[in-house]
Amino acid sequence: MQIPLSTRSPRASSGFVMFGPLRLKCALGRTGVSVAKFEGDGATPTGRFRLLRVYYRPDRLSRPKTQIPIFALRSTDGWCDATDDRNYNRHVRLPYPASHERLWRTDSLYDIIVVMDYNITSRRQMRGSAIFIHVVRAGYKPTLGCVALSRPDLLRLIACCNSNTEIQIGGSPQRGRRGLR
Length: 181
What we know:
Elements: E1 2-6, E2 14-19, E3 22-27, E4 33-34, E5 44-45, E6 47-56, E7 70-72, E8 77-80, E9 91-93, E10 100-102, E11 112-116, E12 132-135, E13 147-149, H1 151-158, E14 166-169
Parallel strand pairs: 1-14, 4-5, 6-7, 12-13
Antiparallel strand pairs: 1-2, 2-3, 6-11, 6-14, 8-9, 8-10, 11-12
């Protein structure tokens, strides 16, 4: 299954995920979408990306229904964003010596995380890290490069997905770029 995500323009920080007959509003990176994503640019990468795995906060919600491999988050879960580290753009256990993002957050953004295959299978330094689908901030405020949906919409979406599901961000769903592959 392929899930198209469209925007009104490349600089738009919001868009829509087309899911069957539904049109789900989403927040995108503060600088819009980009075919030339790099670390810290605030852009959501364009391309077609497989949904690799889901993480969720077991203290805040029951295990979501999905056919994507799913894991309960722990307070020691992190994601390395140090461009010169061997675990750049990889899940890590905390404490971790290099720069990282803590996945167990006090806010609700990472109550559900869907890891997209952006810069993971074919990893390149400085091309961006921690590009997820996660829960949106109030008011659909822009992300730092992720795709963010309301919690009910995200739960509805992943319930119909499996590990072969791909999200197509920008471009034509049939002829889109394959990201960094």
